[in-house]
Amino acid sequence: MSTDVDAPVDTTGARGGGSEPEHLDVVIVGAGLSGIGTACHLEREQPGRDYAILEAREDLGGTWSLFQYPGIRSDSDMHTLGFKFRPWPDTVALADGASILEYVRDTAEEYGVDRRIRYGTRVTHAAWSSEDQRWTLALTTAAGEKLLTCSFLLWCSGYYRYDAGYTPELPGIENYGGTVIHPQHWDPELDYAGKRVVVIGSGATAVTLVPAMTQGEGRAAHVTQLQRTPSYVLSIGRTDPVAEFLNRWVPSWVADPIVRTKNITQLIALYQISQRFPRFVKGLLRKGAAAQLPEGYAVDTHFNPPYDPWDQRMCMVPDGDLFKAIRRGDADIVTDRIETFTGTGIRLQSGRELEADIVITATGLNLQLFGGADLEVDGEPVNLPDTMAYRGMMLSGIPNLVFMIGYTNASWTLKVDLVAEYFCRLLGWMDTHGKAVAVPQRDPAVQERPLLDFDAGYVKRSLHELPTGGDRAPWTLAMNYAIDAVTLRRARVDEGMRFEPARARVRA
C-alpha cells in the first residue's frame, strides 16, 4: 500500500538515522475488542500490511481490563459480542469480565496481533497532509514525545473517556463522612464486607453491582440501588440452552454459526417489536419483573420507566440475580431524588434518609471520540460537529480515517466486524485502482440528523460535540445489523467518495 520510496524502517521508531518518523501503512489506535478485532481482520484479509496498534494503557482489553468493580460482566450475549471469525467458546451468555479479557488475549495471541501492540503510547494529535498523503501522529510515551506517520488511521478506542467517568453534581457531598467511589475507578482493596452500600444509578453497571455485592463471604450488609428514573430490566439465562444442546451433538463449526444467527435474530426482533409495539413489550417486561419480585412490590415505581423500551439500552440480568437479591431482602431499590448528602448518608427529597458507609456513583460515562486527540487536515483544525459521518465509520472531508462505533441496541462487536471487513475491502479496491487517498464527500442535499438517535443521558450530554448524521444513505448510522450486513458487505466503496491516485515520495 505504501508509496514511500525511502529505505526500510528500522526498529527504533525512526528511519534514515532519525531524519524522518517511522511510517506504517496502517495505525490502529486502541487495543480493546475493536482494535484487536480489526487487526485480526487485517491479518486475515490484507496480509502483509505494515501496521501497529497503539495502546495508551499498559494492557490490552479496553473496557475489560479497565473496569474492576464486583460482578463486571457483559451486558450483551457473548455469542454476538464475540468475533465472527473466532466464536465465543463457551455456552455462557453473559460472561464475567475476566473471561472476556482472557478471550481477547487469546484471540490476539492466536492471530499474532499481540506482537503489534505498542503499550503506553497515547496519540495526542493527528495531522493529515494532502501533499504527503499521510497522517502524522504526535505520541506521548514513557520515553518522551515521538512522531509516527501512516497512510491510514483507524480509531478503535471506543467513544467514552477512559480517565474519567461521569459524576453529576451531588449536593452536600462535602459533608459526607463515608467512602465515595465511581465504578470506573474501582479500588480493588475496597472492603465492603458488612457495610451499608448505596449504589446511585439505574443502568447496566448498577444492576450488576447490586446483586454482586450481596453474594460471597465478603458481602455487604445491605445494598440499596438509588435511582432517579427506572430502567427496563430483562432476566435472561446465564447460559444459552441452544448452545448447550448443540455443543453436545454437533461440532463447534456447525453449532457456532447457528447460535450466533439465532441470537442476532432475537436481538433484531426484540428491538423491532419494541419500536413498533412499545405498549405490548412494556407490558411483557412489567409482568416479567412482577413475577420475580415479592408480592405487592411497587413494580410501577421501580421497574416501569416513563420512556418506551429501547429508547434507552435495556438492562439484562443473568438468571434474574437482581430480583433474587431483592427477594432475599439483601437489596432494595429506591426511586427518588437526592436533596443532600449528610454526614452519614443521603437525605432524599421525599424526606427519607439512606444510611450508607459506602456510596457508589454508577452514574455513567463521559463520551469522547478519538481519545481526546486533536485532528487537523492541511493545517486546519477539525471541528467534529462540522463533519458528517459516512456509513457511521468515516467523516466527510477527512481523508483515510476510519473510526468504530458499535450498536446501542445490540452487541458492540457486531458492528466492529462489519466495519473492519469494509475497511479491508476498501484497501483492496484502492490497491486495484491505484488509489492512495479516500475522502467522503458530503452531499449538500443531505439534511443533518443526530449521529446517535438514542435517549440515554450520556448521549444527550455530548451530542453537540459529535459529528452529525444524515437523513439518507450513506450518511446514516444504522442501528440494524441486518441492514448493515448487506450494505457494508455489498455497497460500492466509491459511493459518495473521492479518491486520489498514489504519488511517490522522494526524500529531500
From TrEMBL:
Keyword Magnesium found: no
Keywords recorded for this protein, A-Z: FAD, Flavoprotein, Monooxygenase, Oxidoreductase
Pfam families per record: FMO-like
Protein name: NAD(P)/FAD-dependent oxidoreductase
Ranges where the record places region Disordered: 1-21
Family from the record: Belongs to the FAD-binding monooxygenase family.
Organism: Actinomycetospora endophytica
InterPro entries: FAD-binding_MO, FAD/NAD-bd_sf, Flavin_mOase-like
Cofactor(s) recorded in Swiss-Prot or TrEMBL: FAD
PANTHER family listed in its UniProt record: MONOOXYGENASE, PUTATIVE (AFU_ORTHOLOGUE AFUA_8G02570)-RELATED (PTHR43872:SF1)
